[in-house]
Amino acid sequence: MVNRPVGLPIPVEIHMQAVHDEVGREMFFAGTLADITEKLEQEKQATELVLKARTVEALKGFLNGVSHDLRTPLSTVITTCYLLRRRLEGNTALLGYINRLEEQVNILIRSVEDMLEMSHLDEDMVEFAFIKVNVNTLIRDVMVGLKTVAYGHHQNLNFEPFSQPLFVMADQLMLGKVVRNLVQNALYYTPSGGTITVQTTQSEGWITITVKDTGIGIASADLSQIFDRFYKADKARTGGTTGTGLGLPIVKKIVEIHNGIVEVSSEVGRGSSFKVRLPMVEDGSKKSESDTPPATPDVAISAL
Asked: Are 275 and 269 in contact (CB under 8 A)?
């Protein structure tokens, strides 16, 4: 190490070589000093990346194994609850315990499914079957079951479709999962009496699916992290439900595979708005190369 003028150390690499006279006698040593600060920083970053990659791989392996191991016992518990319900028909007090047990087991099952799905998406184990999909029709189908959930929470769930059919090239099941996850997320974070609205619009070759709510909103400090895995901005959810924090990361991953973009805006106490933008396909025509958008940018985040 050598010191800068202000006394800060500088890591250096020294190269020394003996200098000889004309008859081969060693006279002195000459050398050079090279500042290796940047080299050491690059080596440190490379090491950190390797360690991070190994940690991620180990975590994915753990989650995959645990998820598979949990499926059988959870299925057994659900089956047992069903049989007990039949035996205890008419016993209101005991049936209340069974109901609460089923609710918690279903939360665990959804968590296991999310972990497996995230792992499969990471490993490219999910095969996407892209077909031309009418977005308005898909959303109507998805919202059939979700309206029952909203009704149970005394919430208003509305759909405002674009006046004309909107088509995208998509895997119908996976795009439906995107809409379902966003609406479920809005239901969780919107108190009783609140409103969740789903809208579809189109502009300049893009279709936008907007899911907005009048819920508790997201603090600006959390906006940059809500798409991170296992991150939870707030535990205050209606009905006390919990999750793994994988719903939004799954949404982001699926949308990116569809060459789309996810945007979010929110303000605490005034609700949130999630927008999914997908390249549009004209009705009656096939998708051309010109319909493919440029490389997907990072998730756009703004405050209302």
From this structure: no
